[in-house]
Specification:
This protein is of the alpha/beta class. Helix content is 36%, strand content 24%.
């Protein structure tokens, strides 16, 4: 892809590999495909990327239920997603899987650069974790279960797990002022506003 004002990059969410593709996945891909095709017809050099997130506790649990390895699980799921996009004639230029070597290399390079720039710091993250939602939940987000324990309202039959993990954090505060300036300056092609509206092309 060449540089300049004639380029257009579009990406979709990377689908999570814990189950088969469904209508919600298809609607997002079709919408992105419409935009990509329109931009190509207008003469822009479009790079349309999709992919899969193949890591997480749900993936491990799904593989264990099938008595196969997580890699075998995600390989099988990826085939279903790729077949769906082919059948829908989605015109993506690339499909990136988080288990691919090229993804691993890109992540290692990005982390190295962020570390070299002083943008990462070590810390501990802890809280109630809902495996079903794959998200930490604040106590305000929870309900009391039948035994007086805390439960996720989306997955009330599952017990929450108290998780504590060492992790690396991005030093967002270093960029806070500049980001707020960009937001205050209004919508632009470099800073889209919520809802997907953009100016400048």
């Amino acid at each position: 892809m060449s540089g300049g004002e004639k380029t257009y990059y579009i990406t979709t969410a990377i689908d999570y590999a814990n189950g088969l593709p469904h209508l919600g996945h298809a609607l997002e891909k079709i919408g992105a495909d419409v935009v990509a095709r329109y931009r190509r017809r207008r003469g822009l050099d479009v790079h349309f990327v999709m992919g899969m997130d193949e890591h997480g506790q749900k993936v491990v649990n799904s593989a264990l239920e099938q008595e196969i390895t997580p890699q075998d699980w995600v390989d099988g799921i990826a085939e279903h997603f790729l077949a769906a996009w082919k059948r829908l004639e989605i015109s993506n230029d690339d499909f990136i899987r988080t288990t691919e070597d090229r993804h691993h290399r890109a992540v290692r390079d990005m982390i190295r650069r962020l570390g070299d720039a002083g943008d990462l710091y070590a810390g501990t993250y802890e809280g109630w974790y809902c495996v079903g939602c794959e998200v930490y939940k604040g106590e305000d987000d929870l309900e009391e279960g039948p035994a007086g324990d805390l439960r996720c309202p989306v997955h009330p039959s599952r017990k929450l797990e108290w998780m504590e993990e060492e992790n690396w954090f991005f030093r967002l505060s270093r960029y806070q002022d500049r980001l707020l300036e960009l937001l205050d300056d209004g919508p632009s092609s470099s800073c889209p506003r919520p809802g997907g509206t953009r100016s400048g092309g």
